[in-house]
Write a structure and sequence with these properties.
- By secondary structure, this protein is mainly alpha-helical.
- Helix content is about 50%, strand content about 10%.
- It has a two-stranded antiparallel ribbon with strand order 1-2.
- Helix 1 runs antiparallel to helix 2 (about 30-40).
- The N and C termini lie far apart (about 35 Å).
């Protein structure tokens, strides 16, 4: 279950939705999350793409996820 503390909206996820959320929030980008899900689940690529997109849109619309542009190697300062 995800909860937006500002709006007090919550969103329940099943096992697959939870895995999508985990990968979307820990992978370097959405495509990497999608590719990992393709490797983990026996599903048609188009169906997975549609379901992942729908979930991400719902999470963004409910303030539970923020999509940011990825940084390119040129944008990252050396340490």
């Amino acid at each position: 279950m995800l909860l937006n503390l500002s709006s007090e909206k919550y969103f329940g996820l099943d096992e697959t939705g939870t895995r999508m959320w985990q990968l979307a929030t820990t992978s370097p980008n959405i495509d990497a999350a999608y590719q990992e899900l393709l490797a983990e689940y026996d599903v048609a690529p188009e169906l997975l793409h549609d379901n992942l997109t729908k979930l991400l849109i719902e999470l963004v619309e409910n303030g539970l996820l923020e999509v940011r542009p990825t940084e390119s190697a040129d944008d990252v300062a050396p340490t």
